[in-house]
């Protein structure tokens, strides 16, 4: 389904006066509100193709209705999100869950919704029916060269698919690790992984990047071969300039200071980008901003400060993507909440009085530094986001409009109650 | 398949001299080795019916060959384990994964292997095709009375199945909880759970118990309605004498002092029993004793001391069961390792010089208390376990014999390479 | 030093127009803003006497200047805070750090600042020079009856001091525990603690409460005898109606769902009150609201809902106190930030649309439930707090006024640069 | 006090028969027991000068009697330990707690006990009375160049002291960090730290190393400037070949796979050495091996495998030191237990059947890999340690002999009950 432009216009018209009052109020307190709006309009967050269906856990999965049954339907869902919030103009494919059979047609179809293709993702953490070798004991780190070779070739094939779609990055998440002490020689595993990645690196087009993700545990529960930012950094620095480290917010041990990692990776020119989600316990893959929105703001505070210090373009210099599991929420609604939370944090970070913060830091005025951060964080920036959406042609309240149009019911009618999306 | 008795005898014969030398050595250092052996022979650990197949994670599952395809084949696998180690004389069924169609026949079949039926387990964390209402938002805590009623009836049905099998306990693990703040009124959820459990409690036969399990998170990632021992205790104390709290070793937040919980539940007469596994991060469901065997010993130290203080029979006063996920190991081999690890910890705990420990505690002699515990723990008790097995008719080295007979290959031949067991 | 009333008036006058604009804006979006203001005016948070000095860690302590040298100076500091924010009208004494030699005079002195005395705190985690027995191995749980008796008598003496000051509660935090496995029989430790507390309980005046605090670790690093809410609950339920469980926000294992504990303790009528602080790793004792302000809001959401459900008076039914360590901030400034953060969370919780939330919960509309909570949380309620302060005679911006009057410099002149406060 | 040689001989004589029986038994199962003994004799663990006194927490400190009052008495205590276990032939000084006024005399005095001087430790986490600038807001990372310069000069002075004592390494632990978001620009802090370390690095003698320690939190509770192994590695790789990363076992977030870090640092030639202790919650600084001895074994398994793969001398290629806090145990007894635990883990690691393990790993035989590790770990190697001590001139049971001679009572008589050691 597609959302008629007039629906958005009607929606906006009905909320305009209230919106204006709120926006004018908040704008009065912001020094360069136009600059902030411009940055918010430019800032786009990619949607992964696997996020449009209902997720689950090892204990089960409770499908929702109207899930997309094909790549085209997933693109249409992202198109719907983008029409509503004008903040998600790209989709990130996962191979082999979403193989684009005809790249030209798929690109044209996406383009119709104003979408292009973000990083492509390989999958060597599951076995496919056609596969010669199993990844039960890992892929790029495997003791058996034949398994490694198969995994390398899969990654190169993913690059090929991506190139046809004008993607510019390969995103590699390995579940390689061990469940028990002794299972693995950890040094050997690291060295084999590096060797495998070097083969993949060589197959990268010149204008591509490879993003090396890390994760401490799950699905392996003793060691993970790329387990923390230091291990990913070690790999990406040995690989070369096209390799960088990807930060998934859920991929850290409890209490990790993620914003410090972000700050240092930026310093080293090695921050590839983000997979956004939130969590209370482990890699819970909850809606970003639903558990600890202040931490998200602190991360964006480091990003804005650090990218500005290196003259980087906020919108394009690194990758921004949601990666969450929608187990009990409608995926489209969940993604609308996610994008909103990310842009709230970004807008708050843009509001931080950086010169004053620098001065407070120079004076070791800890109280004042906290005041400065919380002044930005406590500001209700939602009207600025709405204004940016309004100007870009989106809806003042995307979620309310989505619900108001009963879009999900339409999707259920089109696709059925029992459709199941490919993916996890 | 069944293991011929002569195979065990041949195996034992071949190892007897070496075994005797080791046993005699360790026996010399133990004050009442015969008492220890007696207790080890009596001590049996139940095997859950879902443990015989390969487990997985939300990211995938890599089957092994020769998995049991039916309840009968699961019973046969437990029979094989018990023939080897004489330490697992019961099986714990999970409904509806393993519904015993004909109780009399199933009991007779189990009895053929020397097995009986331990606690029965209900399942309201997954939807079954035939089900009227979904458990997507919980079961016994659900806001909708109809859903709660369905879940109550399922539990009562499970009791009925159990009664036919001469089980004496219903084990209830609820995944009920919430993924996001606001999703649930937590007080209301608790009160509805209590009300539901009261209905189930009323259906319990007089000589039954209901075991109330707790778990902090997964598959819900914000709150779990029975989230910790205190919440389970609150429920079981309100329910009455037939209700007790079940401890699954993996169901705790990081760093929890589990042994203290065990000690206090014993004090209150509210310890139902154990689900054994090990973990490094969360509910990793690894082989018990594979990550932190000293903690396992410390738990058994509390058990032995606490049960003796209350005059409880170690073997029968509470429930002992393995509950792990065999993702990368042969399930039977994994279970053999698990039972061995549990009995090692138990034997070490039996070796603790309790009077000396009491004295050291009375003197606040912390150094000496540690020496006493570690003296028991450092002792290589494996020959004592082997002796107990030998006397009970089992194998000196169960795992070696299982491998030596190529039992798994036989199972693959019988059941095929692609058999998939019911369960997770 | 005391803050002249005219200074507050001048300060408020200079900010009044800006304040009014902000307040009018936010008030328009709140259904019963007058009700909220009334509740904010009533809501008072106690200051502990040990919070006025600089705190430290085992690695060191870096004093600030102008720290209070006596109980009188501590009272004066709280008076200054209260004059500024009209939200901290009581002080909580710690015995023996702050023994009130003459209760009548001290009460009159406090009363001069509009202050009274909140709960009194005993200390059996340190040895005092005059003490017969050492608490090295614990106090109320000690194996030696003489040590327990000394600790019991100390607590009874603290009640006596409190009674003279019109306190109504004894707050007991025990560091009793063990550093090593084997050091302690945990059941025995629990039973002795219960017995000791019963003696103290008997000495409580009829209109008093005893608040039993829990903490998982530090200063003991293997077990703590009152280690979690369940253990505290067990004790307070065995003691009787005058005993309740105190929640210190920093006294939980990582990832604990504190709001659920709060909800259940309220349900059971066993919530004594709070010690507020924030933390990222352990019992970090940071400024409340500085690390995870959303969690603080979620706790207050449970409090408001749960207290309303039981018809409890928010301001008086339970105890509210700050308990943090001011290692790198000026203590008075830190306390001003703390009180502000607590009242922001409280105000946001008052803004939650409870009927709509109940409906969303009834519908399992998880998306909507999150929207409702975040609508309240995202609202910038600071102008409502300022309005409440203004009406109560406090300052629109307490921290700015404190800094503007150079109050700390005056304190340094009065008390010196090297004054060191009693306490940690 | 000094332990007469005859006391050791008498002690050994009395235990010899029993020892021989046990040693002969275990030796029969070890393929190269002489090689193991040789390595155990060579393996020495340094004692830090601050470990001889009682430690404490921020809540208090409970002194023990007979604590050493001077550097000479600390050396004597290490001498006593070494006489007993022949495994601690060096002492690691902390400046300024233990400034050697006359290096020649101190070396001679140490030499009398068979001791030399291990790494020297600087201290910029506390203020000294004579100091011009405060470290309240950090040292090598400080925003103020004058503070950094002071800290640099202190480190260079420590090198000077060390050079006079024939030390060969400077060990740097910084508490630099921040308690609150915003307090610090984390990139700037890192860059200033690097710059400061470069100045120190330049002052290193050619045959020296600088060991860069990391720690995630405490005494700072938001960020630590050298917070994890990746950050330390980044610094040490930028500094040069003489810089390496020091691993303190307690300096990790919960659940960290420390053995993997060890394996990779060895791979990169960047492992400086160890500070040994154990912990359940945070940096608990408990006796090594008292909480999770299997983890300690797993770390040694990586060390033995990794050092052998690089042809490194186990005893001398990296630094081995205890760093724990003796809060409730006699420090000397605690150190004897610590050294024993370390050498047990080392001996067990030497017993691992490495070729079989390599084969199991090559076969992905996870069950077998676990069997191999646990076969080594379950072996009671204590008689091998005793044999190594016996041959080196130490005691078969050092702790029993220490207690038997009532050495602590003698120390109390010499030094008094209330002596307090310098340090924490």
TrEMBL record, chains A, B, C, D:
<keyword id="KW-0413">Isomerase</keyword>
<dbReference type="InterPro" id="IPR050337">
    <property type="entry name" value="L-rhamnose_isomerase"/>
</dbReference>
<keyword id="KW-0479">Metal-binding</keyword>
<dbReference type="InterPro" id="IPR036237">
    <property type="entry name" value="Xyl_isomerase-like_sf"/>
</dbReference>
<protein>
    <submittedName>
        <fullName>L-rhamnose catabolism isomerase</fullName>
    </submittedName>
</protein>
<keyword id="KW-0464">Manganese</keyword>
<dbReference type="GO" id="GO:0016853">
    <property type="term" value="F:isomerase activity"/>
</dbReference>
């Amino acid at each position: 389904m597609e959302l008629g432009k007039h629906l958005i216009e009607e929606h906006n018209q009905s909320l305009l006066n209230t919106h204006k009052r709120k926006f004018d109020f908040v704008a009065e307190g912001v020094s360069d509100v136009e600059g902030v709006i411009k940055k918010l309009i430019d800032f786009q967050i990619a949607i992964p193709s696997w996020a449009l269906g209902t997720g689950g856990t090892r204990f089960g999965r409770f499908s929702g209705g109207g899930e997309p049954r094909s790549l085209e339907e997933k693109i249409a869902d992202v198109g719907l999100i983008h029409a509503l919030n004008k903040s998600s103009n790209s989709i990130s494919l996962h191979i082999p869950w979403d193989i684009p059979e005809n790249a030209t047609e798929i690109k044209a179809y996406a383009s119709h919704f104003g979408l292009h293709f973000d990083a492509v993702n390989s999958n060597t953490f599951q076995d496919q029916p056609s596969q010669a070798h199993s990844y039960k004991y890992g892929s790029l780190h495997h003791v058996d060269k034949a398994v490694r070779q198969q995994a390398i070739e899969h990654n190169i094939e993913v690059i090929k698919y991506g190139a046809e779609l004008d993607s510019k990055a390969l995103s590699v998440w390995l579940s390689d690790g061990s469940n028990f002490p002794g299972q693995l020689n950890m040094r050997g595993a690291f060295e084999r992984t590096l060797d495998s990645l070097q083969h993949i690196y060589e197959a990268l087009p010149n204008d591509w990047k490879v993003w090396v993700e890390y994760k401490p545990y799950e699905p392996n529960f003793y060691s993970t071969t790329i387990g923390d930012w230091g291990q990913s950094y070690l790999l990406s620095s040995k690989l070369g300039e096209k390799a960088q480290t990807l930060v998934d917010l859920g991929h850290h041990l409890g209490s990790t200071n993620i914003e410090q990692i972000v700050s240092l990776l930026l310093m080293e020119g090695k921050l590839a980008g983000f997979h956004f989600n939130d969590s209370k316990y482990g890699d819970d893959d909850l809606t970003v901003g639903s558990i600890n929105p202040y931490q998200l703001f602190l991360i964006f505070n480091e990003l804005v400060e650090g990218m500005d210090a290196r003259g980087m373009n906020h919108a394009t210099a690194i990758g921004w993507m949601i990666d969450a599991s929608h187990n009990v929420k409608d995926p489209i609604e969940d993604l609308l909440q996610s994008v909103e939370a990310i842009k709230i944090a970004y807008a708050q970070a843009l509001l931080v009085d950086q010169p004053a913060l620098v001065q407070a830091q120079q004076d070791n005025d800890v109280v004042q530094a906290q005041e400065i951060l919380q002044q930005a964080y406590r500001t209700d920036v939602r009207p600025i986001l709405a204004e940016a959406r309004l100007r870009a042609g989106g809806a003042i309240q995307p979620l309310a409009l989505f619900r108001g149009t009963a879009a999900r019911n339409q999707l259920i009618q089109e696709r059925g109650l029992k459709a199941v999306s490919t993916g996890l």
